[in-house]
Amino acid sequence: MLYFEKFNLAELPELGAAKYGLRPSLSMVVGSFYTYMDLERLSRGVAQALALKGVKKGDRVALLAENSPHWVIAWFGIVRAGAVVVPILNDFMPKQIANIIQHSGAKIVFASKKLQAKLADMSPKPDIWDVSESLEPSTDYVELPAVEADDLAMIIYTSGTTGISKGVMLSHRNILSNALACKSIITLRRTDRLLSILPLAHTYEFTIGMVIPLLYGAHIFYLDRPPSASALLPALKAVKPTIMLSVPLVIEKVYQSGIAPELNGMKLYKNKLMRPLILRIAGMKLKKTFGGHLRFFGIGGAPLAAEVEEFLKKAHFPYAIGYGLTETAPLLAGCAPKVTLLRSTGPALKGVEVRIADPKTITGEGEIQARGPNIFKGYWRDEVRTKEAFTEDGWFRTGDLGSIDNKGRLFVRGRLKTMILGASGENIYPEEIESILNQMPEIEESLVVEEEEGLTALVCLKSEVLDNIGARLQDHLDAVGDLSSRVGQAIAQAEKSVTGSVNQALTDTEKAIERLLESIRKEANSRLAAFSRIQHVKFHPEPFEKTPTQKIKRFLYGKKGEKPELAQ
């Protein structure tokens, strides 16, 4: 592992080159390949080019690009120049990107060729540098500024599930202290291979999926396309990763689409004596799907469905749950795969303090608050919300509800802002109801909201369910076609019969969906406490809009919905 003198990430490329030399550091799954010496040389070239352009310590430089070695090289080049990186999530719309660039004051943007189109209508347009263009170090001496541990390293504008995006200011100390504290969860080796599938502009992938592997001399691989099944499976076969990070949605889809139907279709699985063995075999098959060499599969960014976690635990799959936020760089709590406890994120990281504010007497639940060297410096140009984010005694308010057991393990229940207060003062957690709904074979995803008529579940049905309903509608319409051709002599009567039959077919389809939704409501309510039962289940025809870490943007749905805006 690398050891730092000034405790800042600007040191990493030079230290890495000295310790790991020609070992591979960054690669595309198919394509370019860079050693630790390449990372040092090319990031130094970026830093010198920025200095010669007049970029000074503390200036902001934006980074808008897909995951690749070029992204990493540019990031380190910017901080080596003493500047502050403003990484921008690729999924932001052009107007949001323009607002981020203007709000941060970034004068230069490193952008990929594909994403430069999102900058086309900006006015005034920033200086755009092609992120994939290799900038070799200058042959002339170029002085770079000294970088200190508490200097600002980057400003991350949150994707947010509750509305307004904010510029989270993270220092070198914030990020590096968090990376080093993760030793309690996993220690990497030089032989480790990490396949990166989450956006580097998010702290989860940045700190745990980029900084930590580079500290240990590991090798990171990047995909050249979104991690769909058609792209991911060949990559897993080629890379055979030992380390991966994921959001729950990825592993939940694998379980729901392949594992659960196979297990439920096996007669032996119903035998309690045989079930542990079958689950163990299923876990081995799942591990083989991920390349066969996986020893750590980190899951974070959103709650993992209880049914899926129970399977992973019993199948001895090497999963680990982490909890944190962008503002905490990101991890607050976590544990190694061998000591995971169902529904818990594990204890706070070493050096991080976590407390429950005003815990309820019975449940011990309250807002999770934290302090430590990983806690952010505040929101960029937003003193009001910075002040609101901290208690009077200096603890960061996470906005999450949870409890801590007598062994110091943290249990997260949900967002404080999404909690719904029941008629008799009970706390209703939408995430827990959604977990039950999402286990049903007909449901792709769900969202529980509070509406005027009561607690309502919006559900997206699986494509095969809709196909089945659609097939029945088509049978009706085919019958209508036969009727139309048979009564060609009586035009008026045919039109009346055809119209009536079509309307009846559509009505029958609506009723079929209504019956299905009602059965879903009854099934869910049979597994819920009386105060948290659903009053209505509504069909949602399109996937919910999500953040890059696949959390549903709750603020867009329900009676409390409001459109997000960037801080100005």
What secondary-structure arrangement, pairings included, does this model have?
Layout: H1 12-20, E1 24-28, E2 33-35, H2 36-52, E3 60-64, H3 69-80, E4 84-87, H4 94-104, E5 108-111, E6 127-130, E7 152-157, E8 167-171, H5 172-181, E9 193-196, H6 203-216, E10 219-222, H7 229-239, E11 243-246, H8 248-264, H9 275-289, E12 296-299, H10 306-314, E13 319-324, E14 331-334, E15 346-347, E16 353-357, E17 366-371, E18 378-379, H11 383-388, E19 396-404, E20 409-415, E21 420-421, E22 427-428, H12 430-438, E23 443-451, E24 454-461, H13 463-486, H14 491-525, E25 536-539
Parallel strand pairs: 1-10, 3-4, 3-5, 5-6, 9-10, 9-11, 11-12, 12-13, 24-25
Antiparallel strand pairs: 1-2, 7-8, 8-18, 13-14, 15-20, 16-17, 17-19, 19-20, 21-22, 23-24
Helix pairs in contact: 1-2, 2-3, 5-6, 13-14
The helix tally amounts to: 14
Strand % is: 15-25%
Estimate the global geometry from the Cα principal axes: globular
Number of strands: 25
What fraction, in percent, of the residue positions are helical? Answer: 25-40%
Name the poorly predicted regions: 560-568
- Calculate Rg over CA atoms: 26 Å
Mean pLDDT, all residues: 89
| Strand order, sheet with most strands | 2-1-10-9-11-12-13-14
Please describe the biggest sheet, giving its number of strands, its sense, and whether it closes into a barrel.
Answer: 8 strands, mixed
